[in-house]
Design a protein that fits this description.
Chains A, B: GO terms for molecular function: potassium:proton antiporter activity; sodium:proton antiporter activity. The structure is a homodimer. Chain A is mainly α. Chain A is built from 28 helices and 8 strands. In chain A, the strands form 4 sheets. In chain A, strands 1-2 form a two-stranded antiparallel ribbon. In chain A, strands 3-4 form a two-stranded antiparallel ribbon. Chain A has a two-stranded antiparallel ribbon with strand order 5-6. In chain A, helix 16 (418-446) runs antiparallel to helix 17 (453-461).
Chain lengths: 677, 677
């Protein structure tokens, strides 16, 4: 095709510029001195501006932290820290958009040349010196006209990959690392159902509703560009990723019903993973030939194959890394922590390098590490890793949310279409409903302790959208459709976080959901028992073939007893000796294990996997008294669970806001907050 | 000037490319589908390669950590972890350079257009879509020829600013944060003398020696480009930055003489700051007119003014931020830690935004925060911050050193000139000697406890070059002179770290420097005493005007007693009450203060500030018995110090390598390692 006349225009200086300009100054070419000095000045100026821009974000975070502290101090729950961060972001965005006017800098040049393609790197020869340019991304045409004016705005706009490669991984990893594993595995079946089936359902529902809305817009002529069904499905996948942060923070503070907590947390963590892979496999949906965006069976099956491939690949990779990271560096906590951190990161990179989804890999890496590696860490490293990832998660989260607020005004190509927005809100409502209620009905057929209607309503209500939806939406805003998606997603996030997030406490009380449940004594002392969580009652089959596997696997992978020398037949004594860590012998007698889901009683629950139902009463009638040595509160909790519904209602009627002792000492908070505590 | 014919060549795809290519796929332009798919594939491919490259570094670090563990486990001291990291870096560098050959990718295009200047950002119009290109830096002409071949090498080459803006700050901050403040302030005078005078001297000496060497090369015609005296001075400033890491790690392990430790640590920390500012003010040396690089009095004074301005500005900024960061978020360690971290970072950014040196600001911010803010943190936050910055420092350090090893082979424009290298080694030797011996002689005139000749030799020997020299050298490698400097600096770092670092233990024993001194009981309980370190005996003048200031300042800034209500006159009671934190009342009776330099005794030392000498015997003869309540080991240490030289020799003759108990439990290690413990 014939290359049209291109335009080269110099815009704001980037961070790189400084190094290059420094090079210019150093370049001793006689006569060109003053010009060098000029560009040096310009480069330094731009570097300062970059620092100032970053400083804006840092101060934004600082402000958020201070206000969070104020809120926590005053026990204000009507607005969560993330909502707060967004508000500050919006304010700063307004200031940047309308308050500051940066004069377009002097050395703007407009050049033209023949360019057929967009290479990722350009080498430009300027009077004998070569400069390297890297492709930053596409700029929409309408943005080009006022490109001189909004330097400032474009400078504070991050490139989308930052969110996916830097900010999202710690959040997701932390979610996996701090999964409340006992209740998670107890409800694994339901959680998987919500996460996979539910997300697929809501994606389809939202997609079709939005498509209808788009068709309507096309009829009324409101549509300013192409919007295909694949785009609608993509939108469905994007906004199907629910965000646990806001609601779960409040749940944790109020110590809400553990079952509900486990269901919501597990679902929202896993459906993030599902949503990512779903969206990328929708993007990969490319029918053969030039008739794009039409239905094609082979292409669809290809997409499904891609979904399965990427998901399983990422899962396997994450799980594998989590398992192999078993450290023997117990005497050097610093090295241990460093290794732990690096392994988690390399999981992400490895998955990306192999073409899988790093975020998903990191999620399962976190779950596995919390499961196996954590047991090997020295006590100090356990604290260190927890605190490190907690901090990273905290900072990344608040940064993303405040950036969301900022993006509402600083993002250049917003496309707000009232019809589409209304349709989208309707769609996510219907999608969530189609996810929760039918699945809950089906699951309740299998569950002995039903998911009560009030819990269902709460789950319906708690379907907030957050960081993941934003990151998925901003990842690509090149076309009209994507821009409209992004703007709408932004509005959805704002609305859900502010309204639903703010209304959580009220909703809890009016739904009679009991609070004040202390379910976080994780350190169960179980004599002579090292069945790994794989063998949790949620996998009834496991006891047949997983049990022996695990009872060998765990002593091999962790320092927990009993040593293989006792479990393996005598013939393989030497191997067992060299494979068993010295700690295993000490741990033989009494294993302080964090995986409370080892407990096989809880007579009141029967367990569903898919749809199959198993009643564990027979197993558990014995041994309740024996197993709970020195763990009265755990015991109390289970008795309470067994007590049934009227008790639940009674407790539910009064919403105890723990005013006097609502701030336990930090370490207790830690134990409560983190799964592996 | 007339713009010559430029060349635009497409090289490897960058990380940004993916987003743009994603945009392409989403862009629904009929007909261009297959082309989009192609570029999408290419972008994904490049993204994978980027992840793989980063993965190489992560695995490098992992490998280093594992080997470090092995070394620590085997108590091997002949090679420090940093030296190890370099070795691995070299190996990987060799593999990347000679092992892997990446085929130059297919879609290379060569285009030409009229370019007069090198804007920081290019907008390229490709068939209706605009792509943004950011300036990455300059590429030397000789590199351009084989640009297709060494994609790989150029991809693993970081841009220099990364070191200055990302990797260096945590290292420097940690150094300041973990200054052993008691001994630091006790030797403040000597340390300042070494850091400022010494660095200036060594810069001048090295500069002139190297200049002579360069002149020789010019005569013999070995010089391939311009090399002015300012370049020589810059080189002097660059390689005058000594690196404490290697030696001090071993010192700490062997618990070497505390005075020596304090002198070396203080000097190497401060002279980093001096070297940075010195180099930037040398770069800023630009005589008027076009006769560059000639001597010009006004320009020189301008440089000196710049030095003083930048240094004092950075110092003030860092100290100010350190002071203002006093948190009352004690009940929320996470928020506290986050705030602490953000404030430290914003110090760096603020300094950069104001045109000062962020690294220097961060250094003094660390010192001040360890001094004031640290006392306000809750116990958990104290642990958290220490561990966080310890980890960041550890990772950044090992990354830089392994990158050094890598750069030896992957860096494109090495200029190794034997004459220059030999001259440089001679120069740094002479420069170090001219720094240590004369200054020690002068200082010994003032000091009562002389800096023994063996200590002087040790300081001479311990003048290693490390991360800072490397970062300064790689910051700008555009010209022939800079490239030669960089290559030589690299060699110097390798040599000093491997040879001097490895020989430390042997040197200690053959210099009869005593080891096994336990000087890390920092928690001195001092009843009724809250004089801040500013008022340490190293500042004799301070007792006149600083003392009252501090005794008001510290209760105001920290939670330490006595409350202002007791110290201020009755008239300002209300103000005092609202300014005094509740903790101050509790701390009134007995203040657990980490600043051991509060102690005014140690009869055996008199203190020098600049050259003035003050004998503190009179002050300290009283109260030794009273002040050291419940701190016997501290007492023991000081008696030992008082014991004098023969005792020192006796202990020095046998180098006790603590084999049996050389690995104290981690928390003790922490207490020992960190200044504020």
């Amino acid at each position: 095709m014939a290359g049209p006349e291109p335009v080269l225009a110099a815009v704001a200086a980037g961070l790189w510029a400084r190094g290059a300009a420094g090079g210019e100054v150093a370049a001793a070419r006689p006569g060109a001195l003053e010009e060098e000095i000029v560009s040096e000045k310009a480069a330094e100026e731009s570097h300062r501006q970059d620092s100032a821009n970053l400083l804006v974000f840092i101060l934004l975070l600082t402000l958020t932290i201070l206000t969070i502290w104020l809120f926590k101090h005053r026990r204000a729950r009507f607005l969560h820290e993330t909502g707060l961060a967004m508000i500050y972001g919006v304010l700063v965005g307004v200031v940047l958009r309308y308050g500051i006017h940066v004069p377009s800098d002097v050395n703007n040049v407009t050049l033209s040349c023949q360019v057929q393609t967009s290479p990722a790197t350009l080498l430009v020869n300027v009077s004998g010196k070569y400069y390297e340019y890297t492709l930053k991304g596409e700029i929409s045409a309408q943005e080009l006209n006022n490109v001189q004016d909004n330097e400032m705005l474009r400078k504070v706009t991050f490139d989308p990959e930052v969110f996916f490669n830097i900010l999202l991984p710690p959040i997701i990893f932390y979610a996996g690392y701090s999964l409340k594993r006992r209740h998670f595995f107890r409800n694994l079946g339901s959680i998987l159902a919500y996460a996979f089936l539910g997300t697929a359902i809501s994606c389809l529902v939202i997609g079709s509703v939005v498509y209808g809305c788009v068709a309507l817009m096309k009829v009324t002529g409101q549509l300013g560009g192409d919007f295909y069904f694949t785009d609608c499905l993509l939108f469905g996948a994007i906004v199907s990723a629910t965000d646990p942060v806001t609601v779960l923070a409040i749940f944790h503070e109020l110590q809400v019903d553990v079952e509900l907590y486990a269901l919501l947390f597990g679902e929202s963590v896993l459906n993030d993973a599902v949503a990512i892979v779903l969206s990328s496999s929708i993007v990969a949906y490319q029918p053969a030939g030039d008739n794009s965006h039409t239905f094609d069976v082979t292409a669809m099956f290809k997409s499904i194959g891609i979904f399965l491939g990427i998901f399983s690949g990422s899962f396997a990779m994450g799980a594998a890394t989590g398992v192999v990271t078993f450290t023997k560096l117990r005497e050097f906590p610093l090295l241990e922590t460093g290794l732990f951190f690096l392994m988690s990161w390399s999981t992400f990179l490895l998955a990306e390098a192999c073409g899988f989804t790093g975020v998903v890999a990191v999620l399962f890496c976190g779950i596995t590490q919390a499961h196996y590696t954590y047991n090997n860490l020295s006590t100090e490293s356990q604290h260190r890793t927890k605190q490190l990832f907690e901090l990273l998660n905290f900072l990344a989260e608040n940064f993303i949310f405040s950036y969301m607020g900022l993006a509402l005004f600083t993002f250049q190509n917003h496309v707000f279409n009232p019809t589409f927005v209304v349709g989208a809100f309707l769609a996510i409502f219907l999608g969530r409903a189609a996810n929760i209620y039918p699945l809950s009905f089906l699951l309740n057929l299998g569950r002995r302790n039903k998911i009560g209607t009030n819990l269902q309503h709460m789950m319906m209500f708690a379907g907030l959208r957050g960081a993941m939806a934003f990151a998925l939406a901003i990842r690509d805003t090149a076309t009209y459709a994507r821009q409209m998606m992004f703007s709408t997603t932004l509005l959805i996030v704002f609305f859900t976080v502010w309204v639903f997030g703010g209304g959580t406490t009220a909703m809890l009380s009016c739904l009679n959901i009991r609070v004040g449940v202390d379910a976080d004594q994780e350190n169960v002392v179980i004599p002579h028992c090292c069945i790994p969580p794989l063998d949790s009652p949620t996998l009834p089959c496991s006891s047949f073939f997983l049990n022996p596997l695990c009872s060998y696997l765990k002593p091999l992978l962790t320092h927990s007893g009993p040593p293989l020398t006792t479990t393996l037949p005598g013939c393989c004594g030497p191997i067992a000796r060299c494979l068993t860590s010295p700690q295993a012998y000490e741990n033989q007698e009494q294993l302080k294990d964090d995986d409370s889901d080892l407990i096989l009683n809880d007579g009141d629950i029967s367990l569903t996997y898919g749809d199959s139902t198993v009643n564990t009463d027979s197993v558990t009638s014995s041994g309740t008294s024996r197993r709970f040595v020195g763990n009265s509160s755990e015991d109390a909790l289970d008795r309470e669970l067994a007590f049934g519904d009227h008790e639940l209602v009674i407790r539910g009627t009064r919403l105890v806001l723990p005013m006097d002792d609502s701030e336990p000492p930090s370490n207790v908070l830690d134990n409560a907050r983190h799964g592996p505590a």
